[in-house]
Amino acid sequence: MASEGVEPGTVRPGGRTARVREAVLRAAGDALAEHGFDRLDLADVARRAEVGKTTVYRRWSSPTGLIADLLDDMAEQSSPRARTGSLADDLRANARLVLKTLTDPRQGALFRSVIAAATCDPRTAQALHRFYAVRVGEWSGCVTEAVERGELPAGTDADEVVRAVSAPLYYRLLASGDPLDEAAADRAAEAAVLAAKAGAYVN
Question: Which part of the chain engages DNA, per the record (predicted)?
Answer without folding.
Answer: 41-60
